[in-house]
Structures are given as structure tokens and as C-alpha cells.
Amino acid sequence: MKKKAVSILLVAAITVGMLAGCGSNGGSGSSSDKVTINLYQNKAEISTQLQDVVDKYMEENPDVTINVESISGNDYNTNLKAKLISDNAVDIYALGDNITNMTDYVEDLSNEPWVDYAVDGSLEDVTLDGKVYGMPISVEGYGLVYNKEIFEAAGIDASTLTSYDAIDKAFADLQDQINSGKLKDKYPQLEAVEEYAAKDTYIPGLHTLNVPLANEYSSATELRNSDQLGLKYTEEFKDLLDLITKYTSSRDDLAKLNAVDFSTAVGGGLAIERVAVTQQGNWIGPELKNISEDVAQKMGMLPIPLKGVKEDCIATGISIYWCINSKSDDKVKEASKEFLNWLFQSDEGKQLVVDELGFVPAFTNYDGIEITDPLSKEVKRYIDEGKTMPWVMGGFPSGYEPLAAADIQGYFSGQYTFDQMVDKLRADFADLKSGN
User: With contact defined as beta carbons under 8 Å apart, do 345 and 354 qualify?
Assistant: First the structure.
């Protein structure tokens, strides 16, 4: 990777307030100063769009160079920590762990102007001793993303799918129509109702597991303060796993799901209309657009129901915070703050956040900025209607995600019975909390 130590070109003339901005364009210094910012982030699905945004900023601020490196999957946290420990220049990064484990590498952002506009509750997980150390980049929500046109072609009114039983019945109906060949002419590649990316640990180990826990714990903080994993809604959790797997192409051998990743489910699934549904969130909008703008516009979001407990809801929260490395050069830290303020608070940046990155803003001062991404609109609709459950998965102890995912994958493969899987989920949680 072509990461290098930050270099700053000094000239003879020392300009007063060299990083105090360049007017309304949010520049990062006088024309005689060169600053390089290395941004390392874990949403690979927006890598193209983020690069376009960064290019716009650099056009307006020729003295600032921003190198973007994007990586997703299970390696981000490990790579990030290795980079930080080895001083391998990372200046802005996505928080991939509990903030309490990153205290040596987080810059105090408490005095940044955006703090006053952060949506209620969004700074809780990045606040220590009254100081804010992370910027929420978007409100995200996930449920059962579906192709509205396929459901319409099958004669299924998706607006009525607000309960577990209704969704289950509709999926069974759609699968029957697929099996009979009724939809073959219009959707020749359609082979199953849904796909489930069990290989990506965040899908089973965070998002699916979060659903029963979000109805047991009120917040990530409450879960974080618990030494034991309650998981009292075990039967309802079993029902949920059943719903999201029994209409996949792997329904006769769930072990095959453990080889299904994001690309298979989204790019090779939804985007080419091989399947009509997958458990995902509004963050897949840019990926779908990259493959098929037409299909991206067909997307809607069904609830992710916990049977008999909370059914007509999606899960919403702040998935990603961007932090600034406190060990970076002071000029780079200031330039990084100015870039973040430009992107998330300037008129131009706000439009890019919504239109290019497809984000639901995590700030209250976006009046007049219309959300255009179909899935982000859906998330906003659920929020406005009060049909949400929290993301308590932020309260998992460090390292729990891959363990929990492996436990659920073990259930799919037949290594564990359901009850054994639940026992493993609880034991792994307790072991990490106790430091074993």
C-alpha cells in the first residue's frame, strides 16, 4: 500500500493562520502549504462515490491531497490497528471497535461545529468523560430489502407485509411462483425469493443477532454494561433465522449459506434479479447503482420481524463513525477537521452526502436537502413513522462479532443444534467479558 509519512512543504514566508480556511470553499490552508490526508474507511460499497467526493474537494483545495483506501469485511479492524500501531499514516479512519479500545488514537472533536447538530443519541458511543471523539457519518437502517417490481409481478401487495406471518406467507407464495416458472419470461434469472450472506460475519454476528437483543436491551450501553448475554427471545430468534434462510437457493442445505458473501447476495443476487430479497440496509444503494441504476430504483424495504414481539420495524442506528488520529501532525489534523466540516456541513457537501454517498444525514441541519436514494428514503420513512428498533450490537465486547458469526454458521452447517448455538453465543460473550 502506498502509504507514506505526511509531508508538508515549507516555504520561506510563514503565513499567519496557515490552516484557517480559504473562504467559503472550506480550504485547508494558504497556497504555500501542502497537506496530505490519508483516509482509511470500511464501506467499500461507497469507495467509488467517496473518491468522486474527495476529487471535488481537492479541485477546490489544490493544496490538500486526500488518499482514500477502502476495505470491507472482516479484515478492517485488524488492518486498522496494525496501521495505527506501526505509524503507517492513517489520519481519518472509520471506528471499527469500541471507542474505549481506541483512546490512544482519537482526537478530541468536542469543539467542532457539527457536534451541536448531531441527531439525538448519535454521539453516545463515541463520548468519553464528556468529550466527543467520533463523527457519525450517517443514520443507517436494515431490514429485508426487496424488489418491488418482482412482488408486483407476483401479485403480492408489499404494503400489507407488516407482520412475520404475512411476510412468511408472501415469501412462500413467491417461491411457489418461481418454482412453477410463472415469472420466468419476465425474470429469467430469478431462482429463489432470497439470499443470505452468512459468510460476512457482520450479517449473522451483528445484524441478525441484534434483532432479538434490540428487543431485550434498550441501548448498546445497557448491553455493554452486562456481563452476561440474556438472549431471552430464543424461539423468536429461531423463527427469524428460519424466515431469512428457508426461501434461499440453499434452503435444502443451509451449510451452503456459509459461502455466500455480500457480492453474491447483492451484486450477484439482487442486482441481476436472481433473487428478490436479502437482509441488508440502505448502504447497498451505491453498489446497486454501480451495477444497474434501473434495478436500484426498484428497491424497497420490508420489516425484519421478531415474531410476536416487534414485527413492523427495521433496525436503525449509527453504524460508522469517522475519527481523526490524535497522533497525526497538527496541520494534518486541522486539515482533516476542515475536510469533514466541508463534507458534512457545507451546502455543497450536504448535497454530496445525500446524492452521491446515499446517506441518511446524522445531523439535524439538512433542511431542504431531499433524499434521493430509494432505500435511504425507506429508512427515513420508518424513522418518521416510529417503526424502528435500536442497534445494541455496539455493546458487544471487542472480538465478539466473528465468534457469534461462527456460532450461527455452525448452526447452519449442522455442527450445532439450535440450543447448542445459543449456549455458545452466551458462553463466548461471557468469556470475552471476563477476559478469558
Answer: no
Q: Which of 14-18, 113-117, 142-146, 374-378 has the lowest mean pLDDT?
A: 14-18
Compute CA 284 distance to the chain's CA centroid, rounded to the nearest angstrom.
9
Asked whether the beta carbons of 260 and 253 are under 8 A apart, the reply is: no
Between 382 and 26, the more confident residue is 382
Helix 347-355 and helix 330-345: axis angle, to 10°? 70
Q: Give the model's confidence band at 32: pLDDT under 50 very low, under 70 low, under 90 confident, else very high.
A: low
Q: Judge whether 62 and 35 are in contact, CB under 8 Å.
A: no
The three cell numbers locating residue 396: 458487544
343 HSE (CA, 13 A, CB side): 27
DSSP state for residue 227 in the 8-state scheme: S
Residue with cell 445497557: 222
Q: What is the pLDDT of residues 297-313, one digit of tens each?
A: 999 999 999 999 999 99
Q: Which residue has the cell 490552516?
A: 19
Cβ-Cβ contacts under 8 Å for 75 (sequence gap 6 or more): none
Instruction: Please determine, for residue 8, whether its predicted confidence score (pLDDT) is greater than 50.
Output: no
Phi/psi for 142 (5° steps) reads -135, 150
Q: How confident is the model at residue 73 (pLDDT cuts 50, 70, 90)?
A: low
Annotate 85-102 with b (16+ C-beta within 10 A) or e (fewer): eeebbbbbbbbbebbeeb
Give the number of other Cβ atoms within 10 Å of residue 259's Cβ.
11
CB 164 within 8 A of CB 235: no
Q: What are phi and psi of 285, to 5 degrees?
A: -55, -50
| All three cell numbers of 62 | 489544490
Cβ contact 272:188 at 8 Å: no
